[in-house]
Amino acid sequence: MTATRPQPRPGVLDIAPYVPGKSTAPGVKKVHKLSSNETPLGPSARAMAAYRAAGDYLHDYPDGSAHALRDAIGEAFGLDPARIVCGAGSDDLLNLLARAYLKDGDEAIHTTHGFLVYPIATMGTGAKPVAAPETNFTADVDAILKCVTPRTKMVFLANPNNPTGTYVPFDEVKRLHSGLPPHVLLILDAAYAEYVQRNDYEAGIELVATSENVVMTRTFSKIHGLAALRLGWMYGPANVVDAVNRVRGPFNVNGPAIAAGIAAIRDAAHVESAREYNSHWLGWITDELGKLGLKVTPSVANFVLIHFPDEKTAHDVNAFLMKRGIIVRQVGAYKLPSALRMSVGTEDANRLTIKSLAEFLGTSA
Ligand SMILES: Cc1ncc(COP(=O)(O)O)c(C=O)c1O
User: Fold this and answer.
1) 138 lines ligand 1 (CB under 6 A)
2) Is the pTM of this model over 0.90?
3) Mean pLDDT across 331-340
4) Which residue in 18, 144, 147, 276 is a FRET match for 114, CA 20 to 30 A apart?
5) Is 61 helix (H, G, I), strand (E, B) or coil?
């Protein structure tokens, strides 16, 4: 039968739309937003100055290949700029990779509590997302490899993962890669890489440099504090870079974002102080939550996953915090209905959250 109105491709209307972290708390004046893993330190002063200066050129199209930004990233990481593609956030790149490599009937693997953009990007192409079980809220290489079928075309691995904050050591990532057929694209999403302080972690650069089927994605939204500008980048083999460049919008990254990104990537001191700040407060928050008797998944990123006995308690805690202006993230959509995710915030926000949780536990005891 002929449809009476345009029909999206099969699968599109099955996508559960991504719900971003909340940013308002009704009836509360002072809000502490700890729901989107943003940095409490903001961007580098140099990045802000570059952004403002770019405001004089809003009538000009940006450089569609973001050449100067790719050069700056290449210089910062010792990479060939020709193997870098920039995007409007790493979301853009994850979607472009899916669009370039997936079609109806294909399968793309992600992990049970993996970042939600993976199934969304997959279903947008008509392909099927396949969730590999995790062990202790951590991606499990053997479980991922068990999900591989002749239809598998892509594996998404957030390392570290959001919302769990856990990571997969480099040896395990290499074992995952060597267990995959060469036509399967392994995407290492390293949005939180800068925060990780572990000797056995590697964001993916080495593996990309030596393979034809591995891509690493990175973002300026987290440690660089440029989430509003929407800026990310990927480093990939020449064959993948070529495919992504064919499907991306010709001006997918805007001029002010390019200018701010160049300044941000060159401001190593700002990144270092953000890393130190995070490391201190991540440790403090984790310890304080432990003292309150709460179960926390050990995190290497800029947020923690806090577990409550059941879904109702998580819901009540969320409402209790919200009344005090503290907005954390409910993670039911990540199959974690009895947990809440809290970003590392300002000192005030961190202390107030711990104090409020203590109050909640005191009143509910
Ligand atoms: C694991 C992970 N990957 C990618 C992103 C997307 O970041 P953006 O599109 O802002 O670069 C996020 C954002 O929360 C994330 O948590």
Assistant:
1) no
2) yes
3) 96
4) 276
5) coil
